[in-house]
Predict the structure.
Amino acid sequence: MYITKSLTKTGIILFFIYYLFAGNICAQRSAYSSSWRYTTDSLIQQLKISKSDTSRILLLHKIGDLYKRTIPDSAFHYYNIALTISVNIKNEKFTALSLCDIGLFYVDKGDYNKALKYFFNSLKINEEISDKKGLAQSLTYIGIVNLEQGLYDKALEYFTKSLKIFKEIDFKKGIIMCNTNIGNIYLYQGSYDKAIEFYTKSLKMYEETGDKYGMSVCYNNLGSTYYNKKIYKNAITNFTNSLKIKQELGDKHGISGVLSSLAALNIKLKNYNKAVEYALEGLKFAKETKSLPQEKLAYECLSVANDSLHNYQKAFEYHKLFKEINDSIFNEERSKQITEMHTKYDTEKKEKELLVKGKELQIQDLKISRMNLYLFILAIIIILILTIAFFIIRKNKYQSLLKNIQLEQILLQSQMNPHFIFNSLSVIQSIIYQNKTEFAVKYLSRFAKLTRIILENSRAEYVTLDKEITMIELYLDLQSIRFENKFNYVIEVDPELSPEMIAIPPMLAQPFIENSIEHGIMHKEKSGNIKISFKTGKDMLLFEVTDDGVGREKSKEIKEQSNDENKHVSLATTITQERIENINKSLKKKIKLDITDLKDESGYAMGTKVAFFIPFKAA
Amino acid sequence: MAYQRSIPLPELITKIHNMKNILIIDDEAKTRQMLADIINLNCKDARVTGFAEDIKSGLIAIEKYKPDLILLDIKLPDGTGFDLLTKINYKIYNFRVIFITAFEEYAIKAFKFSAVDYILKPVDPDELLDAIEKCRIQTDNEYNQKFETYYYNSDKQSKNKKLFLKTLGTINVLEIKDIIRCESDGCYTTFYTNNNRKIIISKTIKEYEELLNDQGFFRVHQSHIINLNYIESFENKNGGFVIMKDKSKIPVSSRKKDMFLKILNSSS
C-alpha cells in the first residue's frame, strides 16, 4: 500500500537526521526542554558579550543546534557565521565541524549534491588534521547521503568504515549512530530481522549512555520495522515509547512523524477515529515545523481515515490538500529535474553549436562543390552552345556552298544552253554543207573556244576582266554569224582600266546579252545594236549591256502570246540575281544589278540597259 | 481443194501525199538553205519551194505557196512553231508538218505522245529524207489522228493527255487515264485499258516508261508499268504484289519496292 511505504521512509529519514544532529555537538543535552527559548536567548546574549572567536564559534554552534529542530533557517544562519569565523581564524577543526552542520542542513532540505560537497570538504580537512572522530563523522554523513539516494551498498561501505574508526577511538555515540544507520539500511532493503537486531543493539547502548533522543529514534525505527513486518502490536508499543520520549524532549519534528506513523498504524488496525486524532495532532506539529513531507503524510492519513469513516467531503478536502503538497514537492523535484535538464540542455547546445559549425563548414563545402557543379554545368552548356553554333555555322556554310554549286550548275546550264549549242552546231553544219570550209573551220574553232571558256569560268568564283571580255566577244561573234548580221555589236573598255588586273565574277552579263539578242533584237524588224561597256565608277567597275531592241515589255508580251514553255528570259534574271546575292554574302561592298527600260521622249521603248556595279577586286 | 480462204489485206496505201511544194520555216538562213539543198538534191518527188524565218513571214508564205509539207522549226524569234499552227486552219490547206528542233525537250515529249514526225538539229540528211518519205506515204487518217492528238495534248486546257498508238492494222488513240497498265514482252508492249481492250505495240516498254512516268504511272517491274490510280491493294507477300482493279496481279521487283511504297504513301 502506498501510504505504508511513504510512512516508513519519511519516518526514518526524519529520525536519523535528528539523531545525527544530536550526536554532532558535544554539548549538554540536558538543556532540551520546553524552556529552550530561554536558553537560546541567554546564548545569544552571551554571544554578544563574547570576544574570543573560539568561544563565539562554540556559542554559534550551540544556538544553531537549538534552532535546527525548530527553526532550521536560523540554525543555517548561525552555522554559516560559525563557518566564516572558523575559516577566518584558520581553525580547521571548527571549519570541518561547521561544514558538516551546513551539510546536514542541506540533507534536511534534500539538496544532496550540495550536502555532499560540504561533507567531502570536511572529510578532506579532517584527513589533513588527522581528526579521527571528525573523519568518522564525515564518512557517516556521506553514508547518509548515499542512503538517502538509495545507494545502499555504498552507504553500508561508508558506515562500516566510520564504525571501525569509532570503535578504535571508543566513541560510543558514534558506534551507536553507525549501528542505527546500518539498521536503517536493512530496513530499506527489507531485511527486517537484521534491522531489528541493530536497532535493539543501539537502543541498549542509548539506554546505557542515557541518550533519550537516541532512544526515541530507536523506538520509532523499531516501530516502523514492525509496521512493515505487520506485527502491529509491537509497532504500537514502540511508537508509543518513542512518542513519550519525544514529548519529554519537545522534539516537534519527531512528534509529528511519530503521530503520523501512529495514525497510519491505526488505519491498518481500522481504528479510524483514533487515526484521525493522531493525524490531526501530527499535522499541527508538522505545520509548526514547516515540514512538507510530514504534512503530506498527515493529510494522506486524514483523507484515508475520513474516507473509511464515510466523511467523504472531508476525505476529499484532505485529499486535495495532500495532492497540493504532493504536487509542490513534486514541483520541487521537477525544478531539480529542470535544472538538470538545463545543464543537459547547455551541453547539448554547445554540442549543437559545434555541430552547427561543423554543418556550416559542410554547407560551405557543399556550396563550393555545388558552385563547382554549376560551373561545370555552365561550362558544358557553353561548350554545347559553341558546338551547336559551330555546326550551324558550318551547316550554313555548307548550305551556301551547296547553293553556290547548284547555282554554278544552273549557270553552266544556262550558259551552255543546249539550244545554243545545237543551233551553233547546226550553223557549222550548214556552212560545211555550203563548202565554205575555211569559214566553217573558223566558226568551229570559235565555238570550241567559247565552250572551253564557259566550262572553265562556270567553276571559277572570279576571273580576270580580259577573260570575261574575250568570252563576251566570242559569244557575240558566233551569234552574229548565226543570225547573219541581224545585229551589230561593240565592246568598249575604259582605257583607264587594265582588264588583266581586275577580277569579276564570271558570266554575270551573259544571260542578259543572250536576252538582248534573242528577245530584244530578234523581235525587231531592222537590225539591232548591242553595246557592251566597262567603265570606272566610284571604287566600282561599271559594266553595262545596252541594246536597242523592243524592250522588256514588248518581249514579254510576245512571250505570253506564244506557247513557248521555255522560261529562258525570266531564268536569266533570277539566276543572276540569286548569284549576286550569294556572292554578296562574302563581300563588304555589294555588287548591284540595275535594269533600265530605255524610252524615247514620247515614251516609246528604245531598248534595255543592264548595269552591274562591281566593287574592284585585284586579280 | 474446194475453195481458197480469203486473206484480209493490210490497209492499202490508197493515196500518196504530194511533196512537190515544201515550205521551210526556220530563223537561221544557213540552216534553211542546207535543208532545202538536202531535199532538192536527194528527193525526186519532193521540192522545196518556199522559205520563211518567223511566224509572221511563215503565215504569209503559207498563204502564198499553199505547201504540201512544212518543215517547221519549233523555236522562232516571235514564238513557237505550234503558235503558228494555231493561227491557221491547217485543214483548209491540207499540208503536213515535220517539226525541226535543236533541243526543246518538252516539244519532243509532245511529239512522242502523238507520234508526229520530227527531226533534230544538226540535221542528219537520212533522217530528214526518211521523215519526208514516212510523211508522204502515211494515210490522211493516220496523219490527222496524230495531229489531232498533238493539238489535244498541246492545248493547255485539256487536262488529260492522249497517247497515239499504231498497231499493224489499226490506229488507237488512248486517253492516258484509261490505261490500267503496260506489260512488256520483249520488243512488244501490251496496253491494258479500263474497257478491257488489249493493244499490242511493237515498241519496247522503256519508251513508254519515259512518256508515262510523270503521268501517274510507275514501272514496278522490269516488265510492268502500272497506273497508280488503278491500284486496288498491295500484298507484301512473296516479294510483293499489286492487285489492280481489273484483278490482275502484278509483281513488284525488290529493287523498286521501297520507291514504290514511298510513292504510294505520298500519293495516298
